Amino acid sequence: MRREEPEKYESYVDVALDEWIALKIVIRGSQAKLHINGAAQPSLVVSDLKLGASQRGGIGYWIETGTVGYFSDLRARE
User: Fold this and answer.
1) DSSP annotation of 34
2) What tens digit of pLDDT does each residue of 3-59 get?
3) How far apart, in Å, do the first and last CA atoms of the chain sit?
4) How many Cα atoms sit within 13 Å of 35 on the Cβ side?
5) How far apart are CA 66 and CA 18, in angstroms?
6) According to the model, what pLDDT value does residue 77 have?
7) Residue 7: other Cβ atoms inside 10 A
8) How far lies 28's CA from each of 8, 20, 43, 48, in Å?
9) Residue 72 CB burial class (10 angstroms; 0-12, 13-18, ≥19)
10) pLDDT recorded at residue 43
11) Are 25 and 33 spatial neighbours (Cβ–Cβ below 8 Å)?
């Protein structure tokens, strides 16, 4: 998506290296709001989820090739 629409689906967040962060994603309809470390205001809002509000499917977690990522306490709920 970065090539097709630069910066539309990414935002700056001030996080330190080698520290855990808490990420909360709230999806309503075709909009997603991403909150970092309990912030009241989202760090990123995506208003046009590509598959639309009526779609169902899995959740994927991805990190850049050549980097290390750890995930803990993953939860998904309606």
Assistant:
1) E
2) 887 778 888 888 888 889 999 999 888 889 999 999 999 999 988 887 777 777 777
3) 27
4) 9
5) 16
6) 82
7) 8
8) 19, 26, 16, 11
9) exposed
10) 93
11) yes
